[in-house]
Amino acid sequence: MTLAYVFLFLGGAIAVWRIWVSIKRARDRPAHSWDERLIERLRHEGSDPFQPHDVVFFFGLPDENAAQLVVERLVREGYIAEYKHVQEQLELSFSVHAQRSVRLSVPDMQATSRRFNELAAEFHGRYDGWAAASNRKADS
After folding, report:
1. What CA–CA distance (Å, rounded) separates 140 from 129?
2. What span, in angstroms and rounded, lies between the C-alpha atoms of 85 and 65?
3. Tens digits of per-residue pLDDT, 64-97?
4. What CATH number should be reported for the domain holding residue 67?
């Protein structure tokens, strides 16, 4: 009977561990696949990812103090950043927009997204991704 409990406990522990690993992978996947899909879309539109793009990064933050601290940190890192109050949002009522000219490589943008997710979490906010216009040259 004791042996049955040991096997039952081990089976449950393995199941919990597999669920935890799956959740961890799924949590990382959306931001990374988003970065890759967006860069691929820009390439499909004729944009050159090896040339600089003006990229805007978006954050949602709970209060003005958090928004101001995030803006100050981003400005120190060379971004042009600002925040504004968003009345429609109850929980994350401040929006931060940060802009920088960067080359769009998938690994670099994935690293930036990971870092910005951590930055937003530090201030109890959310990183909402990025956007960039195509840098395609007009046909002559």
Report:
1. 33
2. 11
3. 999 999 999 999 999 999 999 998 767 889 999 9
4. 3.30.70.970
